[in-house]
Design brief:
By secondary structure, the protein is mostly helical. Helix content is 58%, strand content 9%. It has one domain (2-64): lambda repressor-like DNA-binding domains (434 Repressor (Amino-terminal Domain)). The longest helix is centred in the last third of the chain and has 11 residues, at 44-54.
């Protein structure tokens, strides 16, 4: 299973989910599903936006586990 570690990255930067939501400019429903790992896919555009906003690489946002 691949999951996003957005919440962990936000905490390390001292930012809130609301701050990121405003930066992303997407619907709250889609945003919430994405950062809470309740979606089956993520657009490259959204992944790129997360990386730019959080100043990180995709490797820092994605985690693979055997669960």
């Amino acid at each position: 299973m691949i999951r996003l570690k957005v919440i962990e990255k936000l905490e390390s930067k001292g930012k809130t989910k609301y701050w990121l939501y405003k930066q992303m400019g997407m619907s709250y429903q889609n945003f919430s599903r994405m950062i809470n790992n309740k979606t089956k896919s993520i657009k490259y555009d959204n992944l790129e936006a997360l990386c730019v906003i959080l100043e990180c690489s995709p490797n820092e946002l994605l985690e693979f586990s055997d669960e």
